[in-house]
Amino acid sequence: MRSGSRLRPTPVPRDLTEASRFPWRWNCDSSCMLGRGPACMARPYSRDLRERVVKAVDDGLSRRRAASLFKVAISTVVDWLRVWRESGSLSPKPIGGDHSSRLTAERDWLLGRIAAVPDLTLEEIRAELAARGIHVGYGTVWRSFAAEDISFKKNRTRRRARAA
């Protein structure tokens, strides 16, 4: 076998700086970084595009052809048509959601419970909330205490062995 016929690896570009790999990183309004690039939220399609797609389908174009023509997914076209027929509106839904905690009404009870028994774990608090009929996730309980600036750090003095 000749040495010239061996496969050679593709050369890797030497400039692997953050700016060269993610040239649009500062055009994002998100402060969250996933991996090494920003986690940008996708913006909704414009109302104008939505109206043109729905009008094209209403004028006789198939959903698949409209999706191909306007460069959107077929499922997007189907969803827009469904929403148009159900509500008559093509406005996008607001981005984000309800950021209020489900535990705001239980704030006083939670603070009193931690004051009475400071060694409770978040899972024990969740169990007590579930017994009261409030089913929430671990993160919800954590965020509610973080908002009150309460942490659950281990106390080194409690872990010491007893004196002999």
What does this structure look like?
With 164 residues, this protein is mainly α. Among the domains are: 47-87; 104-151. The protein is built from 7 helices and 2 strands; from the N terminus they run αββαααααα. It has helices at residues 18-21, 47-58, 63-70, 74-87, 107-116, 122-131, 138-147, and strands at 33-34, 37-38. A two-stranded antiparallel sheet has the order 1-2. Strand 1 and strand 2 (37-38) form a beta hairpin. The model has no long low-confidence stretch (mean pLDDT 78).
**What kind of assembly state do the chains in view correspond to?**
single chain
First-last Cα distance = 77 Å
- Helix/strand-derived category reads mainly alpha
Q: Which blocks of ≥5 consecutive residues have pLDDT under 50?
A: none
Number of strands: 2
**Which overall shape is indicated by the principal axes computed on the Cα atoms?**
elongated
Please count the helical segments: 7
Give the helix level as a range of percent. Answer: 40-55%
Q: What sequence of helices (H) and strands (E) makes up the elements?
A: HEEHHHHHH
As laid out across the biggest beta sheet, the strand order is: 1-2
Strand fraction equals: under 5%
User: How would you sum up the major sheet?
Assistant: 2 strands, antiparallel
The whole-angstrom Rg is 28 Å
Question: On the 0-100 scale, what is the average pLDDT?
Answer: 78
